[in-house]
Amino acid sequence: MSNVPARPGSARTSALAEDLRLLIGTLKRRLREQGQREDLPPSQVAVLLRLEKDGPATVSSLARSEGMRPQSMSSAISALEAAGLVRGAPDPDDGRQTIMSLTDSCRERLRTGRAARQDWLSRTIAARLSAREQDELAAAVGLLKRLVED
């Protein structure tokens, strides 16, 4: 690719966007291989990450947050409970509701998986990239951050 600035929507921009999208997909797969998430479906992983990020929540609020039907969320929660990854407790404000939260075991699995992915990526960068290339990667990361800024 040349260093000539491209117009939005140009063939160069489109090719770069495709290359980046494919590369990010490959990187996500490689990271997922390192993390040992026990082959959970993406919807269940999303629930775990939502609970980790936002804290305990009801099934209905999780369904809204994830754009799922409450029945589908209930199925996901049931599977996660059976796997020992989440637990429910009565809502102190509304006894008809159950507040779902991560189990300590799940928190540890998330932490361990994250550490394994970080370790793999750090080792791979150190092994495959020279110091100059690592500087280039750092600059590229800065550009990628700009792409996703709100």
What does the model show?
The chain has 150 residues and is mostly helical. It has 2 domains: 10-38 and 104-150; 40-102, Winged helix-like DNA-binding domain superfamily/Winged helix DNA-binding domain (Arc Repressor Mutant, subunit A), CATH 1.10.10. The chain is 68% helix and 11% strand. The protein is built from 6 helices and 3 strands; from the N terminus they run H-H-E-H-H-E-E-H-H. It has helices at residues 11-35, 42-54, 59-66, 70-82, 104-128, 131-148, and strands at 57-58, 86-91, 94-102. A 3-stranded antiparallel β-sheet has the order 1-3-2. A hairpin with a 2-residue loop joins strand 2 and strand 3 (94-102). Helix 3 (59-66) crosses helix 4 (70-82). The longest helix has 25 residues, at 11-35. The model has no long low-confidence stretch (mean pLDDT 91).
Specify Rg, calculated over alpha carbons: 20 Å
Spatial order of the strands forming the largest sheet: 1-3-2
Weakly predicted, low-confidence segments: none
Distance between the termini: 28 Å
Task: Tell me the β content.
Answer: 5-15%
Organism: Bradyrhizobium brasilense
Domain HTH marR-type: 13-149
Pfam families: MarR_2
GO molecular function, one term: DNA binding
